[in-house]
Structure formats: structure tokens, C-alpha cells
Amino acid sequence: MKRKWLSMVTVFSLMLMLLAGCGGSGGKAAEGKSSVLDGGAGDSATELSYWTFVELHGQHFEKMLKKWNEANPDRQIKLNVTVMPYDDMHNKLSIAVQTGTGAPDIADIELGKFPDFLAGEPQLVPLNDVIDPFRDTLVKSRIDIYSKDGQNYAAPTHVGASVAFYNTELLEQAGIDYTKIETWEDFKQAGIKLYEKTGKYMGTADTSATWQLSMMLAQQGTDFTDDSGKPIVNSEALAKGLSILKDLQENNVIATIAGGQPDTEEAYGEFNAGNYATAFMPLWQMSRYTNYMKELSGKIAIAPIPVIEKGMPRSVGGGGTGTVVTKTAKDVQLAKEFLAFAKLSLDANVEIWNTLGFDPVNMDVWDMKEVTHNPDNQFVKYFKNNPFDVLHEIKDEIRMIKSTSASPTINNVLCTVTLNEIFEDGKDIKEALKDAQEQIEQELK
After folding, report:
1. How far apart, in whole angstroms, are the C-alpha atoms of residue 280 and residue 210?
2. CB–CB of 77/342 below 8 Å?
3. Contact of 49 with 80, CB cutoff 8 Å
4. Residue 121 half-sphere exposure, CB side, CA atoms within 13 Å?
5. Tens digits of per-residue pLDDT, 290-331?
6. What mean pLDDT is reported for the chain?
7. Contact 171, 277 (CB under 8 A)
8. Closest-CA residue to 158 (of 438, 355, 402)
9. Is the pLDDT reported for residue 2 higher than 70?
């Protein structure tokens, strides 16, 4: 869907819809689920509001709130956390920051939505001064993606390094060693063998997400947009990547999956049933395994993604949530300093790994073996190999795909039309990409 800043008429129309309970998920969903966390604060504490679309993020902030209040007895905070569905939260936040009414003090904004909030004059507070003390320890690209004109507007949550998740039990049934898979040709031959032996698929042909396309583009050193941010989805690079995936589909190596991609409730069931051996996803998919695919514990190994040719980069940063402070925050400086403490400090990044299973943006954590290899950690216990052993192997190969003002439109067209045409309807790849380019350009006018 084309997402531009709304005209005032549209804004007020949408406000009326939200107030009437006609939001995308109904009135209760639009209002969200709220709770006030005191973190041991006294009666004189400042109450800050925080909106998120991920309940686990609230759990992380609850831990960091208690630590903040213990360390800052004269600047204590209570946090009013509201969890809303993804679209409801972003739509409501967009209206609130544009009208200057009703915005929270702190909010999560997903990477794909972020360009909308940087359009024109951002109604977010620059965070450069609170990021600076941590800047040397952070992955620069994860700060840059939430920036405009030299101003950093969000604290990132993770690196999101993409990896392969292999069901080793299923692969062993066909005599396949996942550690020998380096290229897409290796993956193809393993998949042909797996299908012949078990009737199961090696991986998924995604139709509702662009994780795989981002990987293919990153390996070739290109993007969905050019240097000026204009869409180039009809590129030779994207056609080449899709041709490789389509060839895998035609050889019964990959197949479309319920839900359209690995990170859906329907797909979790397919993986639990052992119908697919591999998911190519950002590392944050680990939490989906521990929460929704518990029966696969001890069976899933993590490895670098196959490449088109050896020597190409084997990972790309996927997804991302930036946490911001709005211009209408009741105490801007307090909100900024708490946000940096809760998201960027070494202690915060240790908790991000322990609670969320995310690859921390503070790279110092990557070398803390007492943290990364803690045998009691739920993620260390679940997976066959240690995630950080793989992260260290690929840390210099993690590329980034830009998020621009065109990104929401590009993503929507590819994920609702183009990928279905290619993988479900058998449409010619170059023709499908040509049509996608034209549709995207038309919608962006």
C-alpha cells in the first residue's frame, strides 16, 4: 500500500475511524493493551508512555526500567507500556505525531515504516547526543538506517544478521550434511536428494516477504533502489536471484508455504511437522523457534546462507525496530537518556540477547563468552550450535538493504502481487518485474 504522509482531511477522517473503533483490527485492538510499570519507582517518579507492537519489547523495557531506577534515585521513571497490533500502532502514531496530539513519549517504529516518519520535517527528536557515548561500540549501519541529514532519530534493537536454520534431523534422514552447503547449487543438490528420499522440501519459496530477495541482492552488491532512492526492481540482479529461486522450486527443492513465509503462525506448523528443512531468516527468528516450535529443540542448526558464487557476502541485515522519542514528550531529555540506557548500553544489549534472542548492536557483547555461551541461556540450549560462533564467522559479511521512502510501496507490490505471480502462477520473471516496476512508479507519483 502506498504510504505517504496523510493530508489533513485524511488525517481527521482516520482519527474519526480510530475513535469509532473501525481500525484494522477493531476497536479493542486499536486501543491496545496497556500497563504501567513502576520498576520500583517512588510516588515522585515521572511517568513516560511507550508504544510498541511487540510484547517482548515491553518485557525488555521492564527489566531496564528497574535498573534505571536503581541507578537514578533522583530521576526515577514509571513506564506506561501500550502494546498494539502492527498496523494499528503505526497508523495511530503517524496521526499523533503529525497532528501534535496524543503521541507517546517513546515509541517503536519498524524499519519498513520508518521512512514515512522521516518525510518532511521529522516530528521525532534527534538522539545524537545520547548515542555518541556508545557510538564506537555500535554497528554503524544500524544507526544510519534511522537517520536523516546527519541526525540519528532512533535507537536500534538488533543487527538482524540473516542465517540459515537447518533441521538436521530431517537432513540426516537423507544423508545430508548441512556444513557442506556453501552455494545455491550445493543447496539445490541437497534439496533434490532430500525430496527423493523423504518427499520433504529443503526450503520455502516466499511469497509474502522479501527476506530471500534481499539476500540475493546483497550477494550481488545491489539493492531494491538506486543511489537516489528510486526503485529498480526490474534489475538484472533481482531477475537473476529470482531465477535461482524459481529453478529450485521447479526441482522440488523449495515450495510455497502456508502464510507465505517462515515467520507466520501457519508456517510454524509446517516446520513443526517436518515438511520443510530450512528457513532463511534474520537471527531474530530464533525467538520464533523457542516460542512456537519447541518440539524442534536440539534439532536446528544455524549456518551461513548459501551464495551464488563463493566469495560473495553470506548475510544481510533483515528487519529492525527503531525506538524514538517524539517531539511532544513530556520530558524530552529524560526520555532520550532512558532510551539510550535501555537500548544502547552494554547492560541493555546483554539483556536484549538474554530476553529477546537478538544479535546485539553493541558488538562488545559478541565477545563476552560468559554471556554468549552461557549454558543456561534458552537459545544456547535450544540450537545444536552456538549462534555467536556463526555470527563471528559472518560478521564482516553482513550487508544492509536500504530503507527509503519508496520501500513500503516496493514491499507491498512485491509481496502482494509479484511473488505470487512468479511462484504461484508461473509468470515470466522479467515480465513480472517489469510490471512491478511500472506499478511501483505509478503508485509513487
Report:
1. 11
2. no
3. yes
4. 4
5. 999 999 999 999 999 999 999 999 999 988 899 999 999 999
6. 91
7. yes
8. 355
9. no
User: 73 Cβ partners below 8 Å, 6+ apart?
Assistant: none
For residue 125, what is its C-alpha cell? 527528536
pLDDT tens for 107-140 read 999 988 898 899 899 999 999 999 999 999 898 8
18 Cβ contact list (under 8 Å, min separation 6)? 30, 91, 92, 95
Parallel/antiparallel/unpaired status of strands 278-282 and 162-167: antiparallel
Q: Pairing mode, if any, of strands 162-167 and 46-52? A: unpaired
pLDDT score at 25: 30
3-class DSSP state of 322: strand
Residue 56, pLDDT score: 82
Amino acid code (one letter) for 397: E
- Identity of residue 237: A
Is residue 145 a contact partner of residue 159, using CB atoms and an 8 Å limit?
no
The whole-angstrom separation of Cα 307 and Cα 186 is 9
pLDDT of residue 355: 85
Q: Which three cell numbers stand for residue 3?
A: 504510504
Find the helix packing angle between 429-444 and 236-250, rounded to 10°: 130
Place of cell 537516489: 228
Cβ atoms of residues 243 and 338 within 8 Å = no
Nearest of 88, 82, 94 to residue 50 by alpha carbon: 82
Q: Which residue has the cell 560468559?
A: 370
Distance separating alpha carbons of residues 275 and 170, to the nearest angstrom:
9
Strand 33-37's sheet: what is its strand order? 33-37, 77-83, 46-52, 106-110, 321-325
Residues 316 and 394: their CA atoms lie apart, in Å, by 10
Q: Is 11 exposed, middle or buried (0-12, 13-18, 19+ CB in 10 A)?
A: middle
Instruction: Please compute Rg for the chain using Cα positions.
Output: 22
How many residues comprise the chain?
445
30 pLDDT higher than 70: no
Pairing type for strands 321-325 and 46-52 reads: unpaired
